[in-house]
Amino acid sequence: MSRSCQSGTFGKWATTMLQQFKFNAYLRFFMLIYFDFTFFSILKIMEGNSSSTTRQVVSFFSYAFFVISIVAPVFFLSIIIRKFPVLKEKEGKAMFNTLVLKIDKASKLRVAQPMFFFGRRIITAGLLCLRIDNQYIFLQYIFVLATSHIYILYLVVSKPYQTTVFNAYMLANETFYSALIILIFIFSDATPQLHIKVIAAGCLVTSIFLLVLANILFIGYLVVKGPIKVKEAIKEAKIKRIEEEEKAREEEEARIARRKKEDEEFSKLPDDTTNIS
Question: pTM for this structure?
Fold first, then answer.
């Protein structure tokens, strides 16, 4: 009886959903605990105290998870790049829904977007473990600000998400987040002037409000559109992007051919001048 249920349509569907759920659930759990476990692992490794058996066990697991936090993202990226053609199929990309959620799978540059998630967190975790009297403590602010700006440029250039609304939402989030970093820095010892801090406080509250507003508007957009219309919008955006990229490719090929023709014509000019002489 159980075998007949498994071989039926519902049984196959349930088996497929369970396999995808289990894989994506484990992956989502790893992504949720990634920063915290990496941070405490580095903190324990830097402490270097293994005087008791309990501390030795904790140190062992700290080293183990720190190695996993480095190897796992590289492993995920290698799988995605190696199985890149499979991501264009529904069954293939379903296994990586957590990593490539709402990401356009037509380009390897876009598919590599999740590596920003792991890269930013592991380096931030390491920098946050620096002692307050460390001479490189200022790198915490520089790294967070620099990676935020790099990610903004990446979003503008590659547009990794499937629709314009998704890209605009992520760009707004990262822009307001970057503004928060800059404004928070003003409240440090960067400037002692009180009126600058008051202006920065107003801008800080505005940035927080805009960040919350962007998330509320995006949630409202998803609720109003509904899952069916969102899928239709994704399909339309995908077709439009393919047409735009194809048009851009044809224009680039025409430009290269035109330039090649101009170079050939230019190379013939000295011969014609010699014959005329």
Answer: 0.68
